[in-house]
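Hey all, quick one. A colleague (J.T.) asked me to put the 2-acetamido-2-deoxy-beta-D-glucopyranose job into the tracker so the inputs and the structure tokens live in one place instead of scattered across chat threads. No bug as far as I know, just bookkeeping. Sequence used:
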Amino acid sequence: MVMENPNLLSLFILLLLGHWIHVQAAPPHSLVAQLPGFNSNFPSKHYSGYISIDGNDENGKRLFYYLVSSERSAEKDPVVLWLNGGPGCSSFDGFVYEHGPFNFEAAKSKGNPPTLHINPYSWSKVSNIIYLDSPAGVGLSYSKNTSKYVTGDLKTASDTHAFLLKWFQQFPEFQANPFYIAGESYAGIYVPTLASEVAKGIQSGTKPVINFKGYMGWEMVSRNEYLMVNALIPFVHGMGLISDTIYGDLQATCKGNYYDAYSLDENDGCYKSMEKVDRAIDGLNVYNILEPCYHFPDTATAKQNGSLPMSFKQLGVTEKPLPVRKRMFGRAWPFRAPVKAGLVTLWPQLSETRHVACVNDEVASSWLNNEAVRKAIHAESENVAGAWELCTSRIQYHHDAGSMIPYHRNLTKQGYKALIFSGDHDMCVPFTGSEAWTRALGYKIVDEWRPWNSNDQVAGYLQAYENNLTFLTIKGAGHTVPEYKPREALDFLSHWLEGKKI
Ligand SMILES: *[C@@H]1O[C@H](CO)[C@@H](O)[C@H](O)[C@H]1NC(C)=O
Ligand SMILES: *[C@@H]1O[C@H](CO)[C@@H](O)[C@H](O)[C@H]1NC(C)=O
Ligand SMILES: *[C@@H]1O[C@H](CO)[C@@H](O)[C@H](O)[C@H]1NC(C)=O
Ligand SMILES: CC(=O)N[C@H]1CO[C@H](CO)[C@@H](O)[C@@H]1O
């Protein structure tokens, strides 16, 4: 009967279609229509908002995400989840300073939001990238029940997994896309622990099925204190920061175990040699030994001084049209403060006591604390979600996941591919450490140490292992690789995601 009535049939199809479209589409209220500071059309669709986990809206954890869909093909390109470290640092660090869709130009006058320009090396050129503020309490994510700010590695991983399942429910059109997890610094813990949750979920048939393919990041620290401190010594020697004589003394007195030096007697030979190392490297910018170190208290006056040396004035000049930050904050663990099991000291607390003195987050702060911006990106206002801080101390965070080595081994053996990379002038987490722990997994080398190219130049070195594990360095880059080398970072990212030779 229906067949005989074409109008009814088309109505029926329309209804079906309408329903189908409704199910397939991202929630319309999450579409970002415009952004203060940007007066042009977006190169792709942006979505943002909250997803509640662990209880209902009022008392649950409201996790804030910002999705930049791919400027090439949102349907086919992978979905990448981006996590900054800390613990306690917002993933808008990545969005504003590293690989987001815009370059931010600070306003001429204080109190005004920055001007946004298109970033030609945005990772949204080749992927649908989700910036997530995690755990609750970080960035724009919050809970009305502040006892939910007490958390740790394992809880954060299961929370983020819960977020992902809900997110893919709300964005079913992305469920079939290959999915990757990426992060930097303390996310060296977030990424493998979350990947492990996702892998377990897939195995036990959790719906929706996440098409998880692999993970990547820099400073994917195993958080093995021995390894990291021990890696520093060959790095500073190789870079010419300590003499052959000091290096010889260190080898003779510490016998390869530099970590324990800090608990030795002051008269011990190893302790004394380590003091010489401290003296040699103390004034350097740990995040990039080639860059000047801006000293407390004030960079603003230094900037105005026309008689500064050229190298100083050109600090931060890269292929990015706008300079990178002069000082960085919250991007990695400062050395001499290795992460141990238990309660983790948060960045703002560290900077008070240890003079990390590296706060330059003005552009991001002025943008994300502007109420018009918050409205545009569907974030709660300051009186609900709190002020946006690059790194917060309002959470209480426990390192309870132990070493990451078993995670990496387990994940790579299950067929998930991993890319571990490192700016080769980062002294905070020297590449020698990442090189050592990737090698220590004991996998067969399938592509032996060789240069890789970008823009017809050697851009760094790589070594690939069986089980799809790749270690890669970026020549001349500091801690936050895309901030220094945006073109090169986009190059190896796109090759790796597409499974092409880097
Ligand atoms: C607040 O969170 C804690 C920890 O999850 C929970 O035990 C408590 O019941 C919550 N309080 C309310 C009012 O929901
Ligand atoms: C390895 O991963 C599998 C699958 O996710 C999981 O069942 C197993 O417990 C993991 N083993 C270890 C040692 O982490
Ligand atoms: C600039 O440098 C000169 C010479 O070192 C110094 O005398 C002057 O106070 C500096 N000015 C500012 C604004 O820092
Ligand atoms: C895509 C890819 O390179 N897959 C490889 C992952 O690692 C296994 C084991 O080394 C290889 O057999 C696959 O070809």
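Adding what we noticed when we looked at it: The chain has 17 helices and 16 strands. The domain at 28-223+399-498 is CATH 3.40.50.1820 (Rossmann fold).
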